[in-house]
Amino acid sequence: MIALAIPINFAFADRTKTKRTDTTNLHLQKNKLISSKPYTRNSLHLALPPLKPAATSNTKINVIRTDDKLLTDVQVYPNPITDQINVKYILSRNAIVTVKIMDVLGNDVVTLLSQRIGSGEQSFTYPINNKLSRGFYFIRVVAGTESIIKRISVL
Predict the structure, then answer these.
(1) Between the CA of residue 126 and those of 46, 81, 88, 99, what are the distances in Å?
(2) Of 86, 93, 108, 141, which is most buried with the most CB atoms under 10 A?
(3) How many domains does the structure of the chain reveal?
(4) Interval 105-114: pLDDT, tens
């Protein structure tokens, strides 16, 4: 009985062979290629290559989005200020940067910086040497259309 079952299995196995891939089932039947895909309504069929398990890629993709912040991480130190102002900030792309000190009423007192700056972390130091009297002031950092205002006190 076993001797009879083995040739029958080989006859059926030779007649229809099935090969599976990630996207479709392919049936080989007597040297004809027949594709049987599951039907899904309103879908886009994409043939993707099979992925290897634990395959990683070290390719970096940089995408510039228009809704990203241009100016981030603005720091003014030390606060309160005695002899010099240190300003540190990060630009995501090249821009014209203006840094001004304003009084409590919003009047411009001193312009510390006004120039085109490259992307990345930027910092500068400005000595105040009796240019500001004691009191509260605001530092306004403007890059492109974005601005950040920090409050400082001068001793």
Answers:
(1) 59, 11, 12, 11
(2) 141
(3) 2
(4) 999 999 999 9
